Amino acid sequence: MARETMAQRKTAGRVMHEFKHGELRSGRSGKGGTVKSRKQAIAIALKEAGESKYESPKKNRRNLARSKRKEATGRTSQQEREGRSRVGAGGRRASTRATGGKNAKSTTRHTPKQRAA
Prior knowledge:
Blueprint: H1 6-20, H2 38-48, H3 57-72, H4 77-82, H5 112-116
Helix pairs in contact: 1-2
């Protein structure tokens, strides 16, 4: 299986966080009740992250896109319960070398594609 992307890892991490806090629900629109089994939580996490080996690549891409849409609009259980509009940090730290901040030893390097944009 291919290596998972950062977006997939974040989504799977968010789902497991919901499981740990008793927020993960099964079934369509969460009508199936709270998930108690760790194995079931992992299965849901892989499906939402688009990493399932039982789905086609097209279906996996669709599942990840659906999850990202849900996260972007604040409709995950974690966001609703914690009163947040989005998941994760508020962006990159301004002082890192990668962003060319005050701790940078040199200017940020861009690929030709990035320079053209």
